[in-house]
Design a protein that fits this description.
alpha+beta; 9 helices; about 25% strand; globular; binds cytidine-5'-monophosphate
Length: about 280
């Protein structure tokens, strides 16, 4: 059987407010997920044998913890499909960056294998499976920029419109669990109505904690701050600047790139994954 290529886009959180915790200790959030048209690429070759093979394991991720491979196993187990796959991820989204790389890889594998195995699950079914793999997986399965509540899985699609950003990668790995387990993380933001959302009035409640606990990040941010107000994505460590348009995003990137690992990226309302899925049907 032949190999096909599937995009796994990154996301940024345009804001992230922590409202409190639920009974199981998970955080109740409000966030706006902005999908990007940049990310990982996954090549998948379905096979007649039921083996699931990860051809190029991501350095630093034990194979049994790889979210793409776990997504494939979960789909196989839940649907009883007897086919297998060879999976190869071209990793561009750094780990521990707050850009949802692992979650997006999982969502892409779920969609791709559902299609290639002809497993017949709906998007709602795939999102429910995705939720078992991580709180950020459902937004990538649904493939639309979205307002999110609960643990981040109660989604309402929200158009952000044409938008450009400069992503800055400090090269610091931040553990999501370490941030959320911190006793001194603020957890008391009031709920806001989506209609009251304005970027300037919102913030990332994890940002101050991550800056306090990762010495060097504050200095690293100074250069980005010359061009606007950098905000952290998710639990970090990636920061982004909003840019008026593509030209401005590329100009800022050009000005910073000798000193910083930066990239101009376009925000999209609809994931490129959905287009690939539509073409594959
Ligand atoms: O869902 P995910 O596996 O990405 O989350 C990693 C860890 O972050 C969880 O084990 C949990 O400790 C914490 N978390 C949380 N509240 C959320 C999302 C994640 O406490 N809404």
């Amino acid at each position: 059987m032949s190999e096909s290529r599937w995009p796994a886009p990154a996301k940024i959180n345009l804001f992230l407010h922590i409202l409190g915790r639920d009974e199981s200790g998970y955080h109740r959030l409000q966030t706006l997920f902005q999908l990007l048209d940049w990310g990982d690429e996954i090549r998948i070759e379905p096979t007649d044998e039921s083996d699931l093979v990860l051809l190029r394991p991501t350095p630093g991720v034990p194979t049994d913890q790889d979210l793409g491979l776990r997504a494939a196993r979960l789909l196989q187990d839940e649907t009883g499909v007897r086919l297998g796959a060879k999976i190869s991820v071209t990793k561009r989204i750094p780990l521990g960056a707050g850009l949802g790389g692992g979650s997006s890889d999982a969502a892409t594998v779920l969609h791709a294998l559902n299609c290639l195995w002809d497993a017949g699950l709906s998007v709602t079914d795939l999102a429910a499976l995705g939720r078992r793999l991580g709180a950020d997986v459902p937004v990538f399965v649904h493939g639309a920029s979205a307002w999110a509540e609960g643990r981040g899985e109660l989604l309402t699609p929200m158009s952000v419109g044409e938008s450009w950003y400069v992503l800055g990668f400090p090269g610091t790995h931040v553990s999501t669990a370490a941030v959320f387990n911190a006793p001194d993380l603020p957890r008391n933001s009031p709920a806001i109505d989506p209609s009251d959302y304005a970027w300037e009035r919102c913030r990332n409640d994890c940002q101050a904690w991550v800056l306090d606990h990762h010495p060097g990040l504050e200095d690293w941010l100074a250069g980005l701050a010359e061009f606007g107000a950098p905000r952290m994505s998710g639990t970090g460590s990636c920061f982004y600047l909003r840019a008026r348009d593509s030209d401005v995003a590329h100009e800022i990137t050009q000005a910073l790139k000798s000193r910083y690992n930066v990239r101009a990226v376009r925000g999209v309302d609809t994931s490129p994954l959905l287009e690939t899925c539509a073409e594959a049907r």
